[in-house]
Amino acid sequence: MGRFDVSMLKYLSPEDFRVLTAIEMGMKNHEVVPLQLVASIASLRNGGCHKIIKELIRHKLVCFEHAKVQGYRLTCLGYDFLALKALTSRHIVKSVGNQIGVGKESDIYIAANDNDEQVVLKFHRLGRTSFRQIKSKRDYLKNRKTGSWLYLSRLSAMKEFAFMKALYDNGFPVPKPHDFNRHTVVMQLVQGHPLCQIHDVEDVQQVYDDIMNLIVHLANYGLIHSDFNEFNLMLSDNDKVTMIDFPQMVSTSHQNAQFYFDRDVQCVRDFFKRRFNFESEMHPKFSDVKKVYSLDIEVNASGFSKEIQEFDKVLDEMNDQDEEIEDSDESKNIVSEQSEQNETNNENLEYKKELEKFELEDQLKEEKCAEIKEALDENELAEINDKFDEYLNLENKMYRPYRDAGLKQDEDSDESDNYSCTTTTSTIMDPRMVRSKVRKSLLQKIKTEKRRIRNKGETSITTQRNRGVNDTIKSSMIFL
Hints:
Elements: H1 14-26, H2 35-42, H3 49-58, E1 62-65, E2 71-74, H4 76-89, E3 95-102, E4 106-112, E5 118-124, H5 134-137, H6 149-169, E6 177-181, E7 184-188, E8 193-194, H7 204-220, E9 223-224, E10 233-235, E11 241-243, E12 250-251, H8 257-275, H9 295-298, H10 306-375, H11 378-399, H12 407-428, H13 431-454, H14 461-478
Antiparallel strand pairs: 1-2, 3-4, 4-5, 5-7, 6-7, 8-10, 9-12, 10-11
């Protein structure tokens, strides 16, 4: 690790930066930018573009290529100078110090701002020999087939700044992002050491639990780190964990999300077993993730496309419509039940009134009979009963002249009694009304049974059909 020599930055003139910017703009659609195109884009007043390019080549800010086509291209140092010029003009960076970290795709330097506060400069360096499988490991290019390493470094820095800002705003333990320009990200300096450099911890169990909870908490917000190891975790003096390095984060909707989640968990378990001789049977699983907030939609994480987002919206609308239909059906059933109850209550009131009338008439008749019995003597009552029996026998002979007075008379008397009973019941309640009441009660039982079966959820035919359709659509979207 050495010092980043930026002493040449203060000696560069505005024309020099104008030529550097012209070469950068020409590299959007050229691997090597011809001199004529650089001169036309820069459009210097007094000319002299060739002379300025010679000075830039001497300071290794521009490189001359003459293999197939003669032209110029920016070097990493020239791209660094353009980013630092923009950050100094915004008063984000004032000075640059020593290098404090290096990785397979970035260089990290310490710097200071106008308030003399220490910050971190992270320069993304995609294209090194240690990491060239960008198309298979990252999705920066998306639909594009080719792209320069400088352009890919810029995309990586944009994505990391977006992830860092979203996580910091939602309370995750990450460095505070300040600003970014081109392939450079400015962030807060974390007071601590990488976990790979730590050999002694006061409470290993607590640190292990904090790291595992951080993995689950991140997945609950719809994101998976995908490179969660001891090199991307910082530990302070108070054993507080801070997470760094975010360009490779993916969404929980990614087709390989479970693989990345399990790999992050296994990396942490292996490190604690190797370094601290600590092994725990309790570790999170991908099935334990319960999505609380869709942070992957805000940052457009890898694995979550616009098609999936629109599909989820359609599913939510379908579910809302089904819930509204079920609620309306339940309200209709409740209203129908209330109306049926009101009808039955009205019918019961009418029956009660009729029964009260019959009871009053019977009481009046009994009272009259009692008064007549009191007025007459016992002999007179006996004579009246005998005359009444004779009168009944005469009537029976008139209507049934060929019947004997034996058992047949008893049967006739039973039949007459039954007939009288039926007539009394018919006067109290009409058979048609009884039939309608029985029919209503049966219909009500059938409705309640249907409603009970429908409210079970899992046994509902409509929900089963919707879930089957959703599963088939999701499985087909994975292979798109």
